[in-house]
Amino acid sequence: MAIDQVHDTQHVYRKLLHSMSRPGTISSIHEIAERIVYKLPCYQATFLSVMTLLDAEVTFHILSEKNQELIEKISEYTLAKYAPITEADFVIVLHDDTESTIIQAMEYCKIGNLIDPQASATWIIECPLIANEAELTLTGPGIKHHTELQVGLTQEIWQARNERTKEYPLGIDLIFIDEKAQLACVPRTTSVEILEVK
């Protein structure tokens, strides 16, 4: 793996922070992600983001059933512990996970509580392509008027997400990563209007 774990993950962290503070803004980590030479069952940019965000203090869950190799790699590089969906600080969705699996996981994942709303799950979701096109309209903090975002999730998944974020400050934060190592974020504070049924 020909990356600098300190310098490169700091760069990725800045990109993630930029996109999280400006929902719907697309950032690229392609130049760093392509330097990951190890064959993985996830996108290279997904693994790079996981390396950036996870450490020994947090837990993670992978929805895909074919995940043992990835669990071991994540634990090896980050020292994070694998946990059930109900306890995980980070939920990782691979590109081949089904709609029903994602919706069920959203129903059971952590959304925090009124005393500690940050005790919630951050989702890292693989998707084919991220674009600023009319699938969703995003409004809320960090967005001047509104912005459009396309990530290819079904209407039902977005409805499940909206259900879990309706009692602010409780909710979940979403990080999307595509095949081209682009990323975009939809935090719990963002209102999502579904424009097109996928």
From TrEMBL:
Keywords: Lyase. It comes from the Bacteria. One of its GO terms (molecular function) is lyase activity. InterPro entries: PhnH-like_sp (IPR038058), Phosphonate_metab_PhnH (IPR008772). Coiled coil: none annotated. One of its GO terms (biological process) is organic phosphonate metabolic process. The keyword Transmembrane helix does not apply. Pfam families: PhnH (PF05845). This is Phosphonate C-P lyase system protein PhnH.
